[in-house]
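> forwarded from #structure-qc
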């Protein structure tokens, strides 16, 4: 937001209004229309250039991942790409009222119907953290990182 105020249209940011963010590192934009394979082919080019630190994020979809599919993908990334470090991440939701844990970003608890105290958890800067969506949340992400979370393309394994 500060960059948009100071540099106006010269600031190349994602998001809108008070929820701007930058693409991290050498990642393609989080809302890319590229396939997972195309994303790998672009991002792998930078891993050998950044030996001090890099990561390939594979944000997984809402469905439960098939272990054989993930093992096949892991084998292909390890043997047939220049990706040096990667992580598979899935978002979680947790109902603070009835203590139900859910896969994916859920607005309503399927167990008790709670809407205001369903907290989201997802990966940010290397670890899974509370997003701060729930009414009684004790912390969470800034508006730009929350917008990035909403914009993230999630890949289904096949």
């Amino acid at each position: 937001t500060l960059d948009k105020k100071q540099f106006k249209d010269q600031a190349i940011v994602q998001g809108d209004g008070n929820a701007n963010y930058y693409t991290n590192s050498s990642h393609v934009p989080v809302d890319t229309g590229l396939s997972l394979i195309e994303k790998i082919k672009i991002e792998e080019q930078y891993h050998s250039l950044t030996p001090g630190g890099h990561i390939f994020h594979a944000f997984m979809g809402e469905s439960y991942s098939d272990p054989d599919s993930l093992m096949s993908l892991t084998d292909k990334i390890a043997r047939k790409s220049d990706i040096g470090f990667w992580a598979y991440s899935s978002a979680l939701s947790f109902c603070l009222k009835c203590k139900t844990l859910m896969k994916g970003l859920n607005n309503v608890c399927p167990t008790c119907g709670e809407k205001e105290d369903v907290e989201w958890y997802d990966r940010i800067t290397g670890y899974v953290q509370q997003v701060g969506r729930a009414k009684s949340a004790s912390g969470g992400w800034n508006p730009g990182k929350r917008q990035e979370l909403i914009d993230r393309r999630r890949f289904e394994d096949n």
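QC bot note: The CA atoms of residues 64 and 103 lie 8 Å apart. The chain has four helices and eight strands.
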